[in-house]
Every structure is written in C-alpha cells, then in structure tokens.
Amino acid sequence: MTAAAEPSFPPATARQWRRSEEARGLALISPTFLYALALLFLPVLIVFLYSFWTQDYLTIDRTFTLKNYRQALGEPIYQDLLARSLYISLTVSVITVVLSYPIAWFISFHGGLNKNFWLFVITIPCWTSYLLRVMSWKVILGYQGVMNTGLMKLGIIEQPLTSLLYNANAVIITLVHSWAAFAILPIFISLEKIDRSLIEAAADLGDGPIRRFFRIVLPLSMPGVISAFLIVMIPTVGDYVTPQLVGGKEGVMIASAIQASFGKAANWPLGAALSVTTMVIVTLLAGAIVLGLRLIVRGIR
Amino acid sequence: MSGRLRLLPVFVAAYLLFLYAPILLIPIFSFNNAASTTFPLAGFTWKWYVTLAGNTVMLDAARNSLIVGVSVSILATLFGICAARAITRYDFRGKRLTSGLIMAPLFLPEIIVAISLLMIVLAMGAELSLLTVILGQTVFCIPYSMAVLVSGFEGFDRSLEEASQDLGETAFGTFRRVTLPVVAPAILSSLLVAFTISLDEFILAFFLTGTQQTLPVYIWGQLRFAAKLPSVLALGSLMLLASVFLLTLAEIFRRRAENRKILQEVPHG
Amino acid sequence: MADRSMISIHGISKYYGPYPAVSSLSLEIGGGEFFSLLGPSGCGKTTLLRMIAGFVEPTDGSIRIDGQDVTGTPPNRRPTNMVFQNYAIFPHLNVEENVGYGLKRLRLDKTEEKRRIGEALEQVRLSTLGSRKAHELSGGQRQRVALARALVMRPKVLLLDEPLSALDKKLREQMQVELRSLQQAVGITFILVTHDQYEALAMSDRIAVMFAGKLAQVATPKEIYQRPVNRQVADFLGGMNFLSATVTGDTNGKVAARTDIFGDVVLEKPPGFTVVEGKVTLGMRPERLRLLWEGETAAKEIRGTVSNRHYFGETTHLSIAVDGLSAPLSIIETNNYGADDLPIGAGVRLAYDPDALVLLAE
C-alpha cells in the first residue's frame, strides 16, 4: 500500500500529480535556494571572476589574465603558506579523527542509556566562544603561561619553554581542541547505525575482538570517518583566528595572506586567486583522501 | 576486550580533561585578582565584572550582537523551515542539487565565504553594516538550522494531519492545532542553535561589519592589549554561561521532539 | 444485518497515471454492517477506503453515504471517521485531549463535551488513562484511543485501515473479538481493510475480496471460504486442493464433470461461469478430506500413501500421494488419533464428501 505517499487531493493523472508534487517541493525550497544562490553561489562566482582580472590601486582591469595564479602558485611565500596550511589541516584531521574514534566508540558501545547526555557533554565546549577558546590556549602555552609555570613548579624545567607557543604545533593543538566534537558526531552516528548482530555474527564465525573491529566495525563506520575527516580538514585549511593568535611567524597560514590582500595590500584579484587555489586544492585533496580511505578499507577486508 | 575496557575509560577521562581544562581557565582567571593570567592565583575579585558594567563600548557591542543574533536566528529558521519541509515532505528533481548548495557553507573554509560576501557587497556599492553581517551569518547558519529541523520534521507523520482533517478540522485549523505544536520543539531548537552560532561567530562579522561591532569583533580588538585580558575573560565567562544555558534549552526541546518521534516508530506492544 | 444501504459506490476508478489502483468498481454496504475489504498489498483496498474517507479523490464514479452524494466533499465534512494504520495519535496531547480533538469544532458546552469523552473512553475501556501522554501508551492502548477518538464523533461509518497489523498475535486476536463486540454495541457500519484472511473471516458480516483494483467476490465469510468463485480467491483464503476435470454435461445452473479420483460429480455453477474447452478446475479444502482408521468405512473413499508430514501442535498437515494425480492431496488432521505419528510411505484411506467440491474459474 503506497497510500501514505499520496497527496490529499491529487489531480486526475499521475503526470499532473507528479508535476504538482514536484512543483510544491520546488516552490517550498526555492526561497532558501535562491537565498543561497544569491549569497553563496553568486559571491563565489564573483571571486572566481576576479581571480582572472587585475587591480591597479582602485581600478579593476577586466582583461583575462593568469597572472594572479602564476603569483599564487609561483611565489615561494604563497607556496610555503599553502603547503603549511595543508600540512596543518591534514595533521589536525588525522589527530582529531584518531582521538575521536575511541570516544565515539565509547559513547556508542558503552554509553548505555545516557548516550544523549554524553554527546551533550562532548559538544558543550565546542559551542563556547571560539576566540576565547583560542585565547585560552595562548594562556596555557604562553611564556608565563599555565603550562610553563606548572612545569616549573613541579621541577621538571627550570626556565620557561619558549617552544610552546607561536609555531605550527601550537596551531595544531588548538585546532584539534576546537574541532573535536565535529569529528565525534559523524563517527558516532555511523557507529550507531551498525547492526549489533553483525558483530555477533562475526564472533560466531570465529573472529576475535581485533579482527571484528577491522573487518566489521571499521569498514561499516567508514562513512562517518570520511565525513569527520572532511568536516575537520576543509574548514581548518582556511582558519584565520588560530594562526593569528597562537601561530606567530612560524604558524601563519593561507587565510592571513587572503585577508591581507583584501585589507592592507588591496589586491583583490590576488586574494581571489589564492581563495580559488585553496578551494581547488582542498577539493582535490578531499577527493584523494576519500578514495584512499576506501581503498585501505577494501584492503583490510 | 577486557583490556580495552580498562583502557577506554582512562582515555575518555583524559580526553574530557583536554576538552574542558581550557574552557574552565576562562572563568577561573576572570575572578583572579591580577592583570596577568598566570598561576598561582592572586585571590578572588569581582572587579573585572564591575568594569564590564561601565564599559559602554562593550555594552554597545553586546546590543549589536543581540540584534544580529535574534535576526539571524529568525531568518535562518524561516529559511530552514521552508527547505526542511520541502525535503522531508516532497519528492522532486533537483533535491540533491538544491539542498547541496544550501548545505555548502559546512564544506567551505569560512574565510572564503566571508571574503566572497565582502566582494559582492562592495561590488554592489552597498555599505557594510549590521545588516550585511545578518545576511552573511544567515547563509552560514541555515545548514545548522536545517539539520535540526529536518530531523524534527522527519518524525512528523502525515497521517496526523489526515487524522485532524478526518475529525472535522479545516486545513488552517490542522496547521494551528497539529502541525505547529508537533514541530514546535524543533523550531525552538533551531532558533536557539542559530542564535548561539551567531553570538560566537567572528570571521563573517569581522569582514562584513562597518563601524558597529559585535561582541566577538569587540573581543578581537581587546585581545591585543594584555591588560584588558581579565575583563575580556569576564565577558567570555558570561557568554559561556549564556551559551551553555541556550544549548541546554535547545537540547531539552530537541529531546521533546525526539519523544514525539519515538511515539510513531514503536507501534508494537 | 444489512438492513438498508449505507454506502453506495458506483463505477468508481482511481488512476495513477496509466495505472489503475481501483477500476470501475461498484459496491453496496449496508447500515450496521461489519464489512471487510480483503486482498494482498497493492490490490487497491486502501485506496478504496481512502476514497470513502475523502483523502483520495476518485478519477471516475461516485460515492453516496446514507443517500447523500459525497464525491468531492473533503474529509472534514463527511460523516465518516477513520482509525489509521499507525493510529496517528497526536503526540502533543494527552488521551482525553486526543479523544476530544474533533468535539472542539462542535462547540459543545463543557459538561457535555466531558460526558461524551468519558463515554467514549469507557466504550474502549480506557477510563483510567485519560491524562496519560500519548508516548506513555502501549500499542494496544493507542489503538483504543484512536477508536475512541473516531467513535466520539458519532460517525455513520467507521473506517479502519489495517488497525491490527501493528499488534502482536495475542493482542491482535483479543482486539478482533473486542472490535466485533464494540461494533455490535454501537451498531454503526464498520469498514475494515485487511490483508489477513483469518481476521476478515473472524470479524465480518460480509467480505469483499479484491485483486488488482477489482472486486473478485463479495459474500459472507462462510460462503467466501467454502464457495470461492475462482482459483485466486480460493488460494488467498487458505489451503486448497486443485483438480482438473473433464466436463460431461453443461446445463444452466449445473456442470457435470468427470475427475480422475472422485469419479463423476455434479457441481453448482457460480454466476458468470463459462466452461472453456470442456475442462474445468475443481477445488476441495484440505479439512474436508478425512483419514479413515482401522475398521472405519465411509460412503466415498480413496487410497493413497503419506508423502510428507508437518506437525503444527494441534493439527498435522499431511501430503497424500494418490495414483492418477500429479500433485499430492493436502489434508489437515487434528492430533487426536495419531496422525502426527503416521510414517512417511504409510498407505492410508481417505473419506471425502463430493458436496465439498467447488467449481473454480481460472
């Protein structure tokens, strides 16, 4: 019986009915869609166009050129920034996913009746002020910060360490902290979807706990791992606040260069080209990672 | 298995410490009677909170944040309701494409969303103001609102509307007496989530605001001055309290929505 | 029971594109009748019910309820009420508010409203649970709330869309009895949609069997079970032994035929039945064949061997191979005399009643 899918007063023929079902759906989604089209698609399209133009102080030259891309991909400083941004975001994603998986596992398999409570506890810190969370790490890792004073009190070090703050590692630690819940949630959801009897079936067929994990749980939770990876990696590539506050000179990332070309440097086309380059590289990288992870899982099976 | 069972709780505890310790430092230092943020603590004081009360720039920023937050949560929820209802209720071609674009901000570096919006605003010759912040943050908040609303609407059983009609109620009466009350928790939850995100959102506000600051933009300006840090931490503690309160509310409403869903999923017994 | 016509459906069709869910179907249902629409999923029975309720508008044809043409009338202005398959209990309201939902529109005074709600809850034996929230109810209780909510509106016709399919077996059987006595107590027409033949047989005054959007047979439970008009109906309602026979005589009301194992028989011809190429199909229900034990004799008997045996607790289903038959005969024996101990390959004698044979259209 497909009765539940029928509209209350359908027109005479199925074609009309489908058309109206379709029309109603499209009509209902169109305000939101048009809004996203105007304030997301169109702006990104303009960034794309700008990346092929040139700017001379306040005038824009609209002749097509690849000059901005030569600059974005050719100049060592942008190469370095891009490479570091990718390195940092990849490292952050790997660490976050590896740390988050056991937590998601714990909530899903040992959370009992309090799963929602655990999720709530895990997500609360990620909803607090982003700026202050980063600031807090500055307080922890600073020259006279919590970490240094603590370690000196314990007698482990005599002089405050200067290597804690203002480098790529400080950026990585802070970002791992910021994105934890975003990785836990998708992994948790995919673990929840696993039919527990599959694990029992694997045990019944002779697999021990470790084999069960690698042959059943991990492959089936892979969609969650992949989306966790992407949901962390993509935004962190373009993170601005963290490198600015705790990165110092050694921790600068591409977002600072993008911001500078729209601010002080006033070279919009270069900023646009850097943005497009970042987006393209991130997309390619994301695709490669998805493929890679799938292949690894296939190999295990 | 038993080995892992013993290791796992230790790991979970360590992880929670890692998650919470930096957050807890904020209120701790906001009550510390010293301008520097170092241990040992120098005694308890309310003075950083007292200075906040007389800080008109901060209060202006707070008022701006409130205006932006309320506008964004209403707009994002309205747009979210349309899209979530379309997705859960109707089948149409282009569903993936349209919802894909709407959800895209989740998968774009925020700075790129921010600068592209900045470019289009300036290209159109419009003024940067709180309005541009509102418009920009709405795009950014819609995906989160949608996620909350879709899960709320998915539980909505069409036969409830039919039952109401069958019992003599008109289409409008059905909407008022059945549809709205049943999905109300999801809508409230969406409002709260969007408000909370807007309250904390920095990048878009930083790029898109004119002379009027929101709270995060104000805080960003203060972070350069070490002496101002304790009162910023006091402000941060208050915002933290507000966020936790709002999210607890959102969670309560979400659970209420969940209960209504469960009702329709377990017909046995 | 069916004293006067309550629902009269005339030439009704519902097309989804080129596909008919219901095609030119006519049906009369009497006042105070417990009427079942029985058929496999996709046969159009739910579409027919939803057309009576007003949720689906027919492509063609008309529906009259109690003499009034309601074709095109929206559901909220029809004298029918429905119990939905998943009960559709309003989750934000408690039991009393659910039951009182439709009364609110009638603007009764408060005491009258309360009285009617109390009365309806009593009818379904839920008086003590009035303030329960919907999510605190069990499946059986939800069903009672759905019933009370519909009955409180005092409809002329109560429509039930597979109301028992979500309940477990024991509760389902209990509710069958309760629904039947409730219907007799309130005395209005009940129309039940079900795919469960036992449910339809146990509860109904009359049953309409539907296949592919058309009525195959409308009759009392006993008639439908014992005298199915065709092979499909016979098969849907339970086990049946099918035999082919050669026609030896064909008059107006009767057909004479020769079978391989039952010899010459004379059968009543169902309306509209025509003999094709001198061959017909006959059917006999398994329980109409009976094992004969040592010393027992019967007027009509045949011999065979046990080829298969399935134990069902109170009964045993046996397959008996008979010379001259390609498929073995199925029989059902109660486990009184040791049918469950018969070894495979044992020779047996079967008693049969030629009157239990029916003529089946293909």
From TrEMBL, chain A:
**Does the entry feature the keyword Transmembrane, yes or no?**
yes
Q: Chief localization class?
A: membrane
Pinpoint the ABC transmembrane type-1 domain residues: 82-291
Where does the chain cross the membrane? Answer: 25-53, 86-107, 119-144, 164-191, 212-234, 272-297
What's a Pfam family this protein contains? BPD_transp_1
Looking up InterPro entries in the UniProt record yields: MetI-like (IPR000515), MetI-like_sf (IPR035906)
Give the record's membrane topology: Multi-pass membrane protein
- Identify the keywords attached in UniProt to this record, alphabetized: Cell membrane, Membrane, Transmembrane, Transmembrane helix, Transport
Matching entries from PROSITE patterns are given as: ABC_TM1
**Protein name (database record):** Spermidine/putrescine ABC transporter
Cell location: Cell membrane
| Record GO biological process | transmembrane transport
Q: Does the keyword Disulfide bond apply?
A: no
Q: Which family does it belong to?
A: Belongs to the binding-protein-dependent transport system permease family. CysTW subfamily.
Q: Name one GO cellular component term.
A: plasma membrane
TrEMBL record, chain B:
Compartment(s): Cell membrane
Q: Which UniProt keywords apply?
A: Cell membrane, Membrane, Transmembrane, Transmembrane helix, Transport
Q: Name one GO cellular component term.
A: plasma membrane
Q: Where is the ABC transmembrane type-1 domain?
A: 62-250
Q: Which family does it belong to?
A: Belongs to the binding-protein-dependent transport system permease family. CysTW subfamily.
Q: How does it sit in the membrane?
A: Multi-pass membrane protein
Higher taxonomy: Bacteria, Pseudomonadati, Pseudomonadota, Alphaproteobacteria, Hyphomicrobiales
Task: Specify the protein name.
Answer: Spermidine/putrescine ABC transporter
Asked whether the UniProt record includes Nucleotide-binding among its keywords, one would answer no
Please classify the protein's predominant subcellular localization into one broad category: membrane
Coiled-coil regions, chain positions: none
Q: Which residues cross the membrane?
A: 7-31, 66-88, 100-124, 130-150, 182-209, 229-253
- Extract one GO BP annotation from the record: transmembrane transport
